[in-house]
């Protein structure tokens, strides 16, 4: 007890040196520090001297503090609890930190020593931390406001990142670790949390447009640190994809490049999710939903273009890709395909193109075709690909039949200079073709008859119908200068063969002789006389074939290739074809809607309008507008499949 009194007196005396006001704050801090260090040294010495006392008497009296604790208490009571001294100490410390934050160099070890003094005296929290955090808060609130105005987003992020690093360094170097959480949280809140939306509005689109992956990674990291940061980012992410995607899909002028751009865009966002957004599932799912939304904003066209894109890749002549690349590409296409609601539109166009690839033998790779087919089957079920598979089957069977037919003709010693290849197509799998009767040369007719006899001997009871519009031939042609092989359609063949018999024919002559339908014939003549390779000469000028035009053979025909393919004129046809394909899809949809309504009503007997509509939506695999659905219901009422309930006009009854 006496010891305490002596120490106390000594310490009281110490306070005097801090009473002058004139001291500069750093000097003042140094003085406090020195006083503290001395005090500690003295107390350590006193403790050594009174070690025995400390270990026995004091230890057994729980009411008495140890000598060390007594020393702390005395220092606390007499020196630091002096308001003036304490205020000056804390202000000094805060001033130093403010200077450092401002970029000035300061005496960090002094700060470390003083702050650990505050901790030892157990007044760190109350006297220092609270004020420190308040200052931090004010500083960064102001800084955030100001820099958000001044800086571009990437710069701003780098600044925030720098600030976070600095504060962390401060924590390690001189602050008490208990300050870590509140300090970092304060910085994050003021520099980020307060500005989430503003940051994204200001800079996100630009970063995404420019594929700035590093900045985006930093953005994601920083946003992950603050409450609801990722959520807000996710929201803007969705908006971005929808907006950008719509610019790809909704502009008819960009139809030519739509699919390629979609694929590129998908690649890009995948990449960003992978390397910038840590493969976050939420971003993946949001991206899928966004794709689905924007792609279906424009009905039908994306599905149609996607099918055509696949065709362009699977068609021969596009062999700049390896099988492996092709396979990868098809996988990517399937991902886009998955987003599309109107899969029937895709199927219709896909099928139309597949027909051409198969019948003209223009498929790049059977493996790729099969692989695409199995992907479609996997995605949409066996029903979806049944016809397509049937088409492939037909082609394979046809090959076998042709092998047998060759043997058959060889054995029978048929004379003739024509080699015939027949593809036997099963009706139903293939599109329906309007049969066109044309006048074939006798030799061809005979050959056809031979084939029919042969085929029916193997498959009796089947009905064969020749589709002249699908036929194509290779002709040997001798011009004055050059010998050529012409790869042409059957219609073109019939026209050209006439010139074996005469010099000049009018449109009328040719129509009579070949029996080709007028529109078809005009297009055919146009392709032979007005296209790139002109094997016929038309007597009048102009691109179109007019009544009364006369044609002669172009004896001086020259071409750098030996085998020349003369394309049919297709421009107009393609547009019509495309419209009719779309129309067919719509008609088919109407049947399906009708069938679904009748099916449901047959089971349920009576249903309210809303229930019926929702069940129909459940069953249909393509998008339908409510007004269209209403029309179908009306028409079924007209056809007496169902009737309105007499009491409740919103209710329908099934009519058996
Ligand atoms: C010390 O600061 C507190 C508030 O920060 C103030 O209320 C008090 O009057 C100051 N004391 C002295 C002696 O300056
Ligand atoms: C985006 O940047 C990454 C590199 O960070 C690159 O691999 C990728 O191809 C780029 N994407 C586009 C669309 O430029």
From TrEMBL:
Keyword Acetylation part of the UniProt annotation: no
Protein known as: Cullin-4B
Signal peptide: none
GO cellular component: Cul4A-RING E3 ubiquitin ligase complex; Cul4B-RING E3 ubiquitin ligase complex; cytoplasm; nucleus
Keyword annotations from UniProtKB, A to Z: Cell cycle, Cytoplasm, DNA damage, DNA repair, Isopeptide bond, Nucleus, Phosphoprotein, Ubl conjugation, Ubl conjugation pathway
Pfam families in the record: Cullin, Cullin_AB, Cullin_Nedd8
SUPFAM superfamilies linked to this entry: Cullin homology domain (SSF75632), Cullin repeat-like (SSF74788), Winged helix' DNA-binding domain (SSF46785)
InterPro entries given in the database record: Cullin, Cullin-like_AB, Cullin_homology, Cullin_homology_sf, Cullin_N, Cullin_neddylation_domain, Cullin_repeat-like_dom_sf, WH-like_DNA-bd_sf
Annotated pathway: Protein modification; protein ubiquitination
Biological process per Gene Ontology, one example term: DNA damage response
Localization per Swiss-Prot or TrEMBL: Cytoplasm; Nucleus
Domain called Cullin family profile: residue spans: 301-529
